[in-house]
Amino acid sequence: MAFLAMTMLFNGYILKTAESKIMSLAGKSVGIIDLTFGFDPQRTLQMVQDYGDSARAYYARTEVTTDVAYPIIYTLLFGIILSLLYRNTSYGWLNTVPFACLVFDLLENVNIVILLTSFPQQSTTVAILCETFKLLKWLSFAVVILIVLFGLGARLTGRLKASSQW
Questions:
Q1: Residue 99, Ramachandran bin (φ over 0: left; ψ between -120 and 50: alpha; else beta)
Q2: Is residue 99 within 8 Å of residue 140, measured between CB atoms?
Q3: How far is it, in rounded angstroms, from Cα 148 to Cα 152?
């Protein structure tokens, strides 16, 4: 319950407040690199440029503080949910899948910080790495959601049975 509450706090207040401050410091609605979809390194480089010095500095601080804690919290939340859904089954190992999201999210954050703090130098290679890890983060997150939904459906229909392997 605590991880659910913390995830809701991050989504509903902490991250929204950080995004608003970044946009305010930038003086325009640029968006947040973490929340973009697709694979577009040039867009990421343009966003870094559009933030301006103050927004870049604040965003970098947010990435190494708030956006380190948040992936850990949501990873643990999903790990617990999957542990509960798949307990006493041969699929208990599925509770480790959210750790892929954590790894890719943190690697994305490292590359975002590099882009933000090395400006005005812009590295297409770092932007490509950032976009790659971001894409892998979203894909792994989608897999986790599908596994949760499948587990819920299987539990509700009684198709997920306890295994004697445990």
A1: alpha
A2: no
A3: 6
